[in-house]
Amino acid sequence: MEAAHRSSFLREWILTVDHKKIGILYGITSLVFLFLGGLAALVIRTELFRPGQDVVTPDTFNQLFTMHGTIMIFGFVIPMLTGAFANYLVPIMIGARDMAFPRMNALSYWLFLLGGLVLLSSFFIGQMPDVGWTAYPPYSIESKGLGLDLWVTSVHILGLSSILGAINVIVTIFNLRAPGMTFSRLPLFVWSSLATAFIQLFGVPALGGAVTTLLLDKHAGTIFYNVAAGGDPMLYQHLFWFYSHPAVYVMILPAMGIVSEIIPVFARKPIFGYKAVAYSSLTIALLAFFVWAHHMFVAGMQLSAGIPFMVTSMIIAVPSAIKVFNWLATLYRGQIDFKTPMLFATLGFVGLFTIGGLSGLYLANVPVDLHLHDTYFVVAHFHYVLFGGSLMAILAGLYFWFPKAFGRMYNETLGKWTFALFFIGVNLTFFPMHFAGMLNMPRRYFDYSYDPSLAWLNQISTIGAYITGVAAVLLAANLVVSAVRGAKASANPWGALTLEWQTSSPPPHENFEEIPVVTSGPYEYGEPETPRKRFKYGQTVGGETISG
Amino acid sequence: MEGSLFLPDALSETAKEIDGLFYILTGIAVVIFLLVWMLLLIFLVRYRRKHPTKEGLRLYGNTRLEIIWTVIPALILVVLGIYSAQMVYALQKPPADAYEIQVTASKWKWEFTYPDGPNGGFTTLNDLRLPAGKPILFRITSKDVIHSFWVPELRIKMDAVPGRETRVWVKPLKEEGKFKVLCAEYCGTAHANMVSDALVMKEEHFGKWVASGGKEDPSGQPLDGKQLAQQFGCLACHAIDGRELAGPSWKGIYGTERELADGSKVKVDDEYLKESIVNPNAKVVKGYGPAMPAYPQLSDAQLQALVDYIKSLK
Ligand code: HEM
Ligand SMILES: [Cu+2]
């Protein structure tokens, strides 16, 4: 009995090649990383509550922000968006039974877990990397212990996982679309996943090359960054940002995709300017490869060499702005229902991402960046895009597709409270950081006793961080309890029109009893007809008859 | 530093110009922010769903509107780009008569080398002084890892890269009391303590100070050991209350006997303390690595002031 139960768990989860189960594994693992990264952040914020050194040593502090950044980016946002959401949603949304290469898909997940564990192992052996998530040489090469080695190994494994995942998404979208699912009928999340997969495919190798040179310099005596022997540390920065700037779009494009799915459903309106939103994703993905040196305006290149990158960085803000206007226009004369996912998508994502986009304009401006580069202003900027943007969209998506994946509803009241706490917490934490940076606070400082008047700004941030921590606990409680005890969810609780809602909750093994035939676009809402009448996705799907 | 909530005092012409650009950007940002948030809130309130089965307006797009909201932001950005680009060229071209100060960063201190003075040049530690009204060119480099030279009041920042010389110039406007040079590129344990004092002096005061080789403070104040300890970054690694940081605490060590790494013993007196500051690796106390940087550039008066300060910590 016991053994049978165990072996079915093994077969169902450990050996699974089902894209939905792999997606859920990705999701759970990334959420664990979110909490670990969040704990590190709380310690960092506690240290910064007052000037001077309080709770951790400077070295521990440096390790904690390195782990925090690495975990959040490589362990949470990227795998959550490109692993969990893309895996779960892309095949169902295009009417496929699975990914193109299911076993490779499973391999991607297990590599992700392995890479994550390698990173975490540094904690258990007491040698966490202290090089920052950017690991600039020569500092990173001189660092003692196994920290850098584990960090590089982990980045390699995670990178391999990303590349395999990206290949799978691209091939699946090109080859496995259901009959009638033309490119102009692809849900916007699928478009954004496609753009993202291309970024990963072309960008990750640059990152792999960059971090490899660090190890070679450290252990094999090469001289890429050895100044005495004619090496140049700036080479690394170019290679690193050639990937890592596009990587910030890996972290935002799928988030934009999620928001583009959710807003029409709860506003009961077609998305405004479908084509503009879809093409903006592609434009951003392409332009993302031409802005990298905006991270290096003061790194030692000639200032005027920054001008082309200033220009491209400002251009890339345009498609982002277009999307914001499109979402707003989608709300216009809608019938808006404030379910938790909608709160996260509108006030959360649209509202806060806008702030992050605007602060990006300051940083993209060479003269102004002379003052703001590497300060808390930058920390505020990328948290508004990553926390206010990516994470808010991820949370919107988690609540939105939770009933689909688990067949149960989450608790709506608790969800709304969680949103309120996240919203307050994020703004309290990150808004004051703009001012700290504009005044005189560099990033990655464990102490600001040179100017104790920075204390009040930091104290607001720290309080905000604790509020965010409470919100995260509520989130976890809601998801865990609802997965076991939540009210049963129908196939389509939101009355949504994309294909994943046309099958049962949770969907059957290969998603559809019968592959649907697609006859119209994904967002055909609007008066006067009710949406279901406009759809002929298939005959009998998931046990429910959808009348054509 | 009081300053406004926005930006610290601007001590140079360039800083004021950069601030001008900053405020233009802020104007644009505030307008867009208000536009987005007002529409967001108005739409969310105005179009709340009144009835569960109601549908919204069937509206797929509007080409004219979409062209407008693509072209307008693009135009604003083009104008902004041209305007900012001009400033970039001005920023990177120092006047021919600029006074040159060599900035050398290392873990975790700033050294400033002045081209004139008694012996044809001298170096100060964590003590940057600038003459008011003269253009100054900083030639910046690093002895070890990458650091970044940031003076918030001057709105300039430039990385200090080993093996390279980077440059940035400013023209401070008027005499101005203490402000700070901060390291803005992460460089390890004491990154946050890599802070130097900075000061803009009247040109004639600056001249006198340079003539004394940086040793003599024109104000004639006696040297304060505690302030020097802060200025040189000693307190990053040495506590004064008995806690163990990267180095031994100073509390009550004067007059005691210490065991060294090689097992021998030494008495903590003036001579030992001075040696430990100028050449710290000569005698390393048991249990500590050779982590402390050497401070050969301190004057005798500065050394004595530091020793007196350590003596005073009972
Ligand atoms: C309107 C579009 C944006 C512009 C113009 C912009 C501009 C910039 C610039 C110039 C920097 C470098 C700042 C400096 O180091 O001085 C920067 C940093 C950063 N941005 Fe953005 N950004 C934009 C959107 C985004 C988005 C969408 C994301 C991610 C979802 C993002 C994430 C980041 C991150 C993570 C950093 C910091 C990297 C680091 O130094 O560790 N940005 N941004
Ligand atoms: Cu970037």
TrEMBL record, chain A:
The keyword Cell membrane applies. It comes from the Bacteria. SUPFAM superfamilies: Cytochrome c oxidase subunit I-like. GO terms for cellular component: plasma membrane. Residues 13-519 form the Cytochrome oxidase subunit I profile domain. The keyword Signal does not apply. It catalyses: 4 Fe(II)-[cytochrome c] + O2 + 8 H(+)(in) = 4 Fe(III)-[cytochrome c] + 2 H2O + 4 H(+)(out). It is found in: Cell membrane; Membrane. Keywords: Cell membrane, Copper, Electron transport, Heme, Iron, Membrane, Metal-binding, Respiratory chain, Translocase, Transmembrane, Transmembrane helix, Transport. Pathway: Energy metabolism; oxidative phosphorylation. It is a multi-pass membrane protein. One of its GO terms (molecular function) is cytochrome-c oxidase activity. Coiled coil: none annotated. Pfam families: COX1 (PF00115). Its main location: membrane. Its EC number is 7.1.1.9. The chain crosses the membrane at residues 21-44, 64-86, 107-128, 148-176, 188-208, 240-259, 271-293, 305-329, 341-364, 384-402, 414-436, 456-481. PANTHER family: CYTOCHROME C OXIDASE SUBUNIT 1. Cytochrome c oxidase is the component of the respiratory chain that catalyzes the reduction of oxygen to water. Subunits 1-3 form the functional core of the enzyme complex. CO I is the catalytic subunit of the enzyme. Electrons originating in cytochrome c are transferred via the copper A center of subunit 2 and heme A of subunit 1 to the bimetallic center formed by heme A3 and copper B. Belongs to the heme-copper respiratory oxidase family. This is Cytochrome c oxidase subunit 1. It comes from Calditerricola satsumensis.
Automatic annotation (TrEMBL), chain B:
PROSITE patterns: COX2 (PS00078), COX2_CUA (PS50857), COX2_TM (PS50999), CYTC (PS51007). GO terms for molecular function: copper ion binding; cytochrome-c oxidase activity; heme binding; oxidoreductase activity. It catalyses: 4 Fe(II)-[cytochrome c] + O2 + 8 H(+)(in) = 4 Fe(III)-[cytochrome c] + 2 H2O + 4 H(+)(out). Keywords: Copper, Electron transport, Heme, Iron, Membrane, Metal-binding, Respiratory chain, Translocase, Transmembrane, Transmembrane helix, Transport. Residues 220-314 form the Cytochrome c domain. It is an enzyme of class 7 (translocase). GO terms for cellular component: plasma membrane. SUPFAM superfamilies: Cupredoxins (SSF49503), Cytochrome c (SSF46626), Cytochrome c oxidase subunit II-like, transmembrane region (SSF81464). The chain crosses the membrane at residues 20-45, 66-85. It is found in: Cell membrane; Membrane. Binds a copper A center. Residues 96-212 form the Cytochrome oxidase subunit II copper A binding domain. Its EC number is 7.1.1.9. Residues 1-95 form the Cytochrome oxidase subunit II transmembrane region profile domain. GO terms for biological process: ATP synthesis coupled electron transport. Subunits I and II form the functional core of the enzyme complex. Electrons originating in cytochrome c are transferred via heme a and Cu(A) to the binuclear center formed by heme a3 and Cu(B). PANTHER family: CYTOCHROME C OXIDASE SUBUNIT 2, CYTOCHROME C OXIDASE, SUBUNIT II. Belongs to the cytochrome c oxidase subunit 2 family. This is Cytochrome c oxidase subunit 2.
